[in-house]
Inverse folding.
């Protein structure tokens, strides 16, 4: 599964306590050949390591061990290397397995516990900056899930939608913006009320920034008949049809998305500047980590590709070279940045990813504190 499937409900279910053992495998992956040829071998090695640890664990019954091993083997077989991104997460217990391919790197590790390891999923969701796109006209409405990787049409939540009767030429309308009377008749108004109802349900279940793309008449009518569209981050006045592809939509939306991202970065910078003046600012991994553990972080800003392996020593973080780590070395945190992100989100804070080197003077991450 991809990052855009990581709803709040999905993450809550994955965090739930389950019968021991629940196995989590994470590893970095490669998008392209020839580097990606090693990924299948590394995954098999992780599956073997997990099996050996299950064999040696006195808490695991033979029945549970065999069942979890079988799920891991199925998962390893089902991983589609052609869809590889920056990392792979495999979750398995005696009853199921899940495969997540993420656009954010993760360390290579095996974790056996009574719940799944979710911090890499949480960090990937936070970094993906998910958004919704509704492309619509008088003859269709399609919902798209958007990430930095592109758009994916959603078949669910009542979408895609089309009216019961279509007696006009949608291709002509998309080309010319003609037939304005279509947007004044009651059938079209009723259709748009249905679109608005379905859209409000989507936003309630999974709140994200919303982008609307349609002819000016369509945008105006949707705003008139309901409230779902009024929170949209941006409206793009461009005609679409039911056959418009994800790539075509992405091209039309690109300027609006660029502006949205720039506005988000500027807003984060302003909040950090205000926090410095109010003395509610923290900078650097050690300081922000301590504040996050105390639940004091309202917003943490992290450079996009910042990762750090550390050792916890007397309550402080000391950076270490992963090559210097000895087996069994205690206190090592291979993914401390992702762990920090999950802690902030668990405590009701916000996470914002910013451009690399933009926080160099603050140790690559900074925070606005509640107190």
């Amino acid at each position: 599964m991809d990052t855009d499937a990581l709803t709040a409900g999905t993450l809550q279910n994955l965090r739930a306590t389950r019968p021991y053992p629940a196995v989590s495998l994470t590893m970095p992956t490669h998008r392209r050949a020839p580097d990606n040829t090693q990924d299948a071998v590394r995954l098999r090695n992780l599956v073997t390591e997990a099996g050996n640890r299950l064999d040696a664990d006195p808490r695991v019954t033979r029945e549970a061990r065999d069942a979890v091993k079988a799920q891991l083997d199925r998962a390893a077989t089902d991983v589609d290397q052609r869809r590889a991104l920056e990392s792979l997460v495999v979750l398995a217990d005696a009853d199921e397995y899940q495969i997540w391919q993420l656009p954010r790197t993760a360390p290579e590790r095996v974790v056996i516990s009574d719940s799944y390891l979710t911090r890499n999923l949480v960090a990937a969701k936070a970094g993906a900056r998910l958004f919704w796109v509704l492309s619509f006209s008088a003859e269709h409405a399609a919902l798209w899930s958007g990430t930095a990787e592109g758009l994916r049409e959603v078949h669910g939540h009542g979408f895609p939608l089309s009216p019961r009767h279509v007696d006009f030429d949608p291709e002509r309308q998309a080309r010319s913006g003609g037939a304005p009377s279509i947007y004044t008749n009651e059938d079209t108004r009723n259709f748009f009320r249905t679109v608005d109802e379905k859209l409000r349900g989507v936003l309630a279940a999974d709140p994200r920034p919303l982008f609307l793309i349609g002819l000016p008449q369509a945008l105006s009518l949707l705003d008139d008949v309901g409230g779902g569209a009024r929170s949209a981050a941006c409206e793009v006045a461009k005609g679409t049809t039911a056959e418009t592809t994800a790539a075509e939509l992405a091209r039309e939306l690109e300027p609006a998305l660029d502006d949205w991202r720039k506005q988000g970065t500027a807003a984060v910078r302003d909040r950090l500047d205000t926090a410095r003046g109010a003395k509610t600012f923290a900078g650097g991994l050690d300081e922000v980590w301590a504040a996050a553990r105390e639940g004091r972080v309202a917003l943490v800003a992290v450079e996009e590709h910042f990762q750090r392996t550390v050792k916890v020593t007397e309550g402080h973080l000391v950076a270490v070279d992963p090559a210097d780590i000895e087996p069994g070395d205690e206190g090592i945190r291979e993914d401390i940045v992702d762990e920090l992100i999950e802690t902030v989100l668990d405590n009701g804070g916000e996470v914002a990813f910013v451009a690399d080197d933009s926080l160099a003077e603050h140790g690559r991450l900074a925070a606005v504190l509640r107190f």
